[in-house]
Amino acid sequence: MAKTLELQFLNTAGKTVKISVDSPVEPVDQTALNAAMDQLLAANIFISTDGEFVSKKGARIIDRSVTEITLG
Asked: Which domain of life is it from (predicted)?
């Protein structure tokens, strides 16, 4: 199973933009995550096609299971 931490932000157009982090440390430290997202906003280093990141929307862990199928 592959896990991803998805950080969700709103941009200047009010649209949701996401940053994904593979293999996050669990359990997630909510205080550290909140501070990290604040630092990303303050640094203003990410810009989407609809503008800069302006606020936090949320975060979530996505757990994905992949099963390979052999074709013969």
From this structure: Bacteria
Per-residue pLDDT of the chain (72 residues; tens, 9 = 90+): 789 999 999 999 999 999 999 999 999 999 999 999 999 999 999 999 999 999 999 999 999 988 899 998
* Burial environment of residue 44 by CB neighbours within 10 A (0 to 12, 13 to 18, 19 or more): exposed
**What pTM was estimated for this model as a whole?**
0.86
Instruction: Give me the torsion for CA of 58, 14, 4, 32, rounded to 10°.
Output: -40
